[in-house]
Amino acid sequence: MFSALLWLMASCSTKPKEDVVSIHTPYGIVEVKLYDKTPKHHENFLKLVESRFYDSTLFHRVIKGFMIQAGDPVSKKAKPGQLLGDGDTTYTIPAEFIDEYINKRGALAAARESDDVNPKKASSACQFYIVQGHKFTDAGLDSAEAKRERYTKSFMLIDILKKKKDSLELKKFRMFIEKHDIPNIYLMLEKYHDSVDTRYAKTKPWKLTAKQREIYKTLGGAPHLDGAYTVFGEVISGMDIVDKIASQPCDTNDRPMKDIRLWMKVKTKK
Asked: In this prediction, what percent of the chain has a pLDDT beyond 90?
């Protein structure tokens, strides 16, 4: 009985502490672990991997120094040069923001629709990205905080203009956003300063902690995405493969000129 008990204890201790998925690409294998504190994203990702949902999909959006994105089911049969990124499942996943899970280099996170049509920041059930990112200075992180504030206030202003039914102002402001016309975006935000800032003051403004700043200065990442996109895992091996994918030539829509297909399997499971 005693020896049997020891065997049982030993077998329990060898169980994996986390679920790990391997992403196979033409350049090599990227392994990611899935976080336990984001159970909805964790379970959904495992379900899709086990059902072979991702097999033969493409890394359809690649921006060097930022991230690589995949998971669009339409990409399986996409023609060369076809614009991708709108394919999805029939459902979304509620946001699961955990302060300690940030968009550091190697973070695995869910893509989603913009705040304009998705104010609750629900995640795409299938599209995901892996952060390549870059290292920041303190000045760069200050700029990232300002960018995030501008982004948040911009969508607040869109909502305000919608409720005012001011279609002309709404159209003009959206055009500024589409063209990344920062000076005019700030002019519009200043024009509606009282309404926007009253609403913004009721939120919890996003600020990086000292620990997060240190991570972004030493390891790198994409800090302006924190608290806006759900991070549900991270790369544990194969960041050199992520870098290779991120360095591939792309068209004007950030789609790699040469298709980068992937397939996945669950490497270890609890």
From this structure: 86
* Angstrom distance (rounded) from CA 107 to CA 69: 12
Q: How many CA atoms lie less than 13 Å away from 17 in the CB half-sphere?
A: 1
User: Structure tokens of 254?
Assistant: 């950030």
**What's the CA gap between 69 and 87, in Å, rounded?**
13
In what helix (H) or strand (E) does residue 22 lie, and over which residues does it extend?
strand 20-25
d(CA 103, CA 215): 10
The sign of the dihedral angle between the CA atoms of 106, 180, 204, 92 is: negative
Q: How far is CA 15 from CA 20, 21, 22, 89, 224, in A?
A: 12, 16, 18, 32, 36
Q: What is the DSSP string of 183-242?
A: HHHHHHHHHTHHHHHHHHTTS------HHHHHHHHHT-B-GGGTTTS-EEEEEEE-HHHH
Domains of the chain: 19-135+219-268 (2.40.100.10), 139-200 (no CATH)
Which residue do the tokens 């789609």 mark? 255
The three-state DSSP-derived secondary structure of 96-149 is: CCCCCCCCECCEEEECCCCCCCCCCCCEECCCEEEECCECCCHHHHHHHHHHHH
Return the pLDDT at 240. Answer: 98
pLDDT by residue (tens digit) across 28-54? 999 999 999 999 999 999 999 999 999
Which residue has tokens 């905080």? 145
Q: Average pLDDT for residues 168-188, to the nearest whole number? A: 95
- Six-digit token string for 134: 């870059």
